[in-house]
Specification:
Elements: E1 5-12, H1 16-27, E2 32-36, H2 43-47, E3 53-54, E4 63-64, H3 65-76, E5 82-85, E6 89-94, E7 100-104, E8 109-117, E9 123-126, E10 156-160, H4 164-173, E11 179-184, H5 193-204, E12 209-212, E13 214-219, E14 227-231, E15 237-241, E16 244-247, E17 251-254, E18 270-271, E19 284-286, E20 291-292, H6 300-318, H7 333-339
Parallel strand pairs: 1-2, 1-8, 2-5, 8-19, 10-11, 10-16, 11-12, 18-20
Antiparallel strand pairs: 3-4, 6-7, 7-8, 9-17, 13-14, 14-15
Length: 342
């Protein structure tokens, strides 16, 4: 067994909301450790769509998902957070003195005064399409996310799906691809109207192809695609040449062990009140996509707001006797000193 790690706050989840929580907690002199099931920092932004553009971060007209994570890491550097990646918090218990003890699947043990659940929607896994033998192509010719766009340059791409991810990557990868075919079972799409219009413009210009139907088979030796079989609603089959396939059939959310922590749940989400974003269990907070409340919007900027209010409440839990004076980073010399800018 490893030595018990003691800290003020343990953050479960190292996505954007968990990272910004480090900043807000640090301004109030709280030390944080972060645990994430992924092997990298950044949550879904880093794992599923690192090069996807984000346009709704206040004051930042455009940034890639990975670029946003990198900026957050630079912002929290003065607080020197400790990351524990590639592990899952499996157990949580409250100790007699009111603190929490948490254990991971790799044997780590933490004792803290505050727990912040910033785990997005839990553990996300891409839905695998029902195509015979697809497992043999995964990781070599079939990919469920785009880590580096450059890896798809010069390939005959087959993008499957009709939602935002399928349309976004159709638009983003078309300039790099040797050819690109979009396959969807219907000629109606669930994506943003602007993305649909841009896709249809590419189609009209002959820059992409569209095939109505569903992928029913994959062809090629040793996990290397040479074509896919697409079957329409009448049973007619068409062979579509491709060397890479990107199926976007959505994500399966698994809440995981959080469901066993004694916290009230509502349809696999954690209800919170909006003054502190505290759960039904005092000292345990939930921010970001994992929580729910009336009017909830699943936006990064909303998670940042939640992190700020959560930190104010957490400070009273960590040190009930400490007087908290609200300060602005623009004018507070003490905050600027913590940030290393004074």
């Amino acid at each position: 067994m490893s030595e018990t790690i003691k800290t003020d706050v343990l953050i479960v989840g190292a996505g954007p909301c968990g990272l910004f929580a480090v900043f807000q907690l640090g301004l109030l002199d709280m030390k944080a450790h972060l645990v994430d099931i992924l092997d990298k920092i950044g949550g879904q932004c880093a794992e599923l769509y690192p090069e996807k553009p984000i346009y709704d971060i206040p004051g930042v007209p455009y940034v890639t998902a990975q670029g946003h994570v990198d900026a957050l890491m630079a912002q929290i550097k003065p607080f020197n957070p400790t990351f524990h990646l590639g592990r899952m918090v499996e157990a949580l218990e409250r100790l007699p003195d009111g603190r929490f003890r948490l254990a991971t699947d790799l044997g780590d043990t933490f004792v803290c005064k505050v727990v912040v659940i910033a785990a997005g929607g839990g553990s996300f896994q891409p839905k695998r399409p029902p195509v015979p033998g697809i497992e043999g192509y995964e990781g070599t010719s079939v990919f469920y996310s785009v880590r580096k766009m450059e890896e798809f340059r010069g390939h005959d791409l087959l993008v499957v799906g009709g939602g935002d991810s399928a349309l976004d990557w159709t638009l983003n990868l078309q300039p790099l691809a040797k050819s690109l075919t979009l396959v969807h079972r219907r000629d109606e799409f669930r994506a943003a109207p602007d993305s649909v219009n841009k896709m249809k413009a590419l189609l009209a210009d002959g820059k992409i192809r569209f095939q109505l139907g569903q992928v029913s088979g994959l062809n090629g030796p040793d996990g290397q695609l040479i074509s896919a079989t697409v079957k329409d609603s009448k049973g007619n089959e068409t062979e579509v040449a491709c060397t890479r396939m990107l199926p976007f059939f959505g994500l399966t959310m698994k809440l995981g062990p959080v469901a066993n922590w004694g916290i009230n749940l509502e349809e696999n989400l954690i209800p919170v009140e909006t003054e502190k974003f505290e759960t039904s269990e005092p000292g345990i907070f939930a921010i970001g996509d994992i929580n729910t409340y009336p009017g909830k919007l699943k936006l990064i900027l909303c998670g940042f707001h939640e992190a700020a209010l959560m930190a104010q409440a957490a400070a009273h839990v960590v040190d009930p006797n400490k007087r908290i004076v609200f300060q602005y980073t623009t004018s507070s010399s003490s905050l600027q000193k913590k940030l290393g800018v004074r």
